[in-house]
Amino acid sequence: MHTVWKGAISFGLVNVPVKMFSATEEKDIHMKYIHKKCITPLSYVRKCTTCDEEVAWEDITRGYEYEPGRFVLFEKDELDRLTEGATKEIKILDFVNLADIDPIYFQKTYYLAPNETGATAYNLLLAAMRDTGKIGIAKVSIRSKSSLAAIRIVDNCIAMETIFYPDEIRPVSQVPGLPERVSTTDKELEMAKMLIEQLSVPFEPEKYTDDYRHALVEAIQAKVAGEEVQAAPEQPRTNVIDLMAALQASLETMKPIAADTGKPDAGRKKAAAGEDRSAAAPGAKTKGKKGKAKETVS
Questions:
Q1: How far is CA 51 from CA 48, 68, 69, 201, in A?
Q2: Mean pLDDT lowest for which of 46-50, 112-116, 246-250?
Q3: What is the mean pLDDT of the chain?
Q4: Residue 279 CB burial class (10 angstroms; 0-12, 13-18, ≥19)
Q5: Are residues 168 and 107 in contact, defined by beta-carbon separation less than 8 angstroms?
Q6: Residues 279, 282, 283, 287: is their CA dihedral positive or negative?
Q7: What is the pLDDT of residue 284?
Q8: Whole-number Å distance between alpha carbons of 294 and 253
Q9: 3, 7, 231, 265 - which has most CB atoms within 10 Å?
């Protein structure tokens, strides 16, 4: 696993050095947008619609649109100053019961492993949380973003789940079309409860699979096996590669000249003069000192 963050868990005066690893991975199959006409993959281009030109990264800044078409701009150093007080610390503020947190708050899960010198403190926190059945509510800054987090035990590992702040959860009252009052008969309710009991089983996550992803993989493999493959045209070499090749070729041609004369400048002048003479064919026009065309005589 790739380490995504290093820091420490702190609760009270206890400090637990840890390394963070992403606990989940995206399994979605990503497809590219293709130009049907020539089967060329389409790429994202940072283009200014006003100037009608591509924009380099160094010419890009950030801005907040506080009114339609009106922005306040921020340079990177201004945004960095806002996080100067952030520390590499997962600071536990409170301990609560897991059942008290609605799943709507949970965002992304990370595994925490002890850093090189933190094994003893790590095991102490893990055992204490397991015995009390409590989870920690903490604050943490990751990639300049401040988050709330729940610190809990997953198997034999301390895990951190980033959670939304309360003002990031939309109130249910904003959902349109909800019935104001639920009206059911006793018989209907009893039958619904019986059906729930019949379908109730222990949670076994391995029994659930992404049917669409598996079907898509099979469809891709079938198309490849049936040679239903469209080849994209070969893309032209970029200017950077062409420039490097040209520079290398120029250096190679200059080496023997410099070796023969011992003076690279003189060699270049002689080579240039030789090329001018050889290029002047009978009847061809060349430029004199004042830039006027003159004819060469054979």
A1: 6, 20, 16, 61
A2: 246-250
A3: 77
A4: exposed
A5: no
A6: positive
A7: 42
A8: 31
A9: 7
